[in-house]
Amino acid sequence: MNKSLGSDIFTAFNYTILTLFALATLLPFIYVIIISFTDPTEYLTKSLVLIPETWSLSAYRFIFSTNAFVKAMGVSGFLAVVGTVLSLIVTSALAYVLSRKRLKGKTFFLVMILLSMLFNAGMIPNYLLVDSLGLIDSLWALILPALTSAWYVFLMKNFYQEIPDELEDAAKIDGCSDVGVFIRIMLPVSVSALAAFGLFYAVAYWNTYFSGVLYINSDSMRPLQVLLQMLLISASQFGDPSVAAMMESEKTVPPQVIKMAAVVISSLPIVIVYPFLQKYFVKGMMVGSVKG
């Protein structure tokens, strides 16, 4: 089809506006990265640094020299890895069980899961529950309450229902139990959904903040986002008193540069993982979302 001059102008205008919006959203991130690599002396002597004359790793060396930040990264890494694996196991297993027609009381369980999406007990009941289980000041308090998502369970349930029953029957004829069918048949065919949901779970665990503030009292067990928030508010509230003293005595690295470097480090793992799982997003999120 031939395009008119007005259509070409409109298309060019749209691309220009969208490009400007994209640059507007990217500039703050680029500025954070640039400041984190800026030489401390240059940052202190200039009111605005867009392209530093001297690049430096001082802020990153300082951050990784502090035990508090390294421990916080280890805590968040543990939450992201262990929490994601356990969440995928629970979500996929629960979805598979609920997708079987022969499950007794299936409607009851589905209604209970649906109610959990509509109603929330609130902060105080959740805290009392975690406290009664003896999980206060434990990393499991950051994993078990967020172990699964009702929405992901429903999506995966619909996906498992779309798999032909003949596939399961053939596996059972070959001697597979229900657990064997789930592990050998269902999990391999749901890799795309698991990859998509796994990234969402990993991001949620990596960004754990409110639960860390609510349930964790020890400085050595604080997640990275809690420590980062304390750093962004004030360098003197970095968590570990020894680290605060180091930051106060560190004259060559301004607190603002350290904050920028901390933001970059905390965002880097998810940015690295995202491109490898991006191809599963559309397929993984659409799977089980349409019935017909």
UniProtKB/TrEMBL annotation:
The lineage of its organism: Bacteria, Bacillati, Bacillota, Bacilli, Bacillales. Its main location: membrane. InterPro entries: MetI-like, MetI-like_sf. Residues 73-276 form the ABC transmembrane type-1 domain. It holds the Pfam family BPD_transp_1. Keywords: Cell membrane, Membrane, Transmembrane, Transmembrane helix, Transport. The keyword tRNA-binding does not apply. It is found in: Cell membrane. This is Carbohydrate ABC transporter permease. It is a multi-pass membrane protein. It comes from the Bacteria. Belongs to the binding-protein-dependent transport system permease family. The keyword Lyase does not apply. The chain crosses the membrane at residues 12-37, 75-96, 108-128, 140-160, 181-206, 257-277.
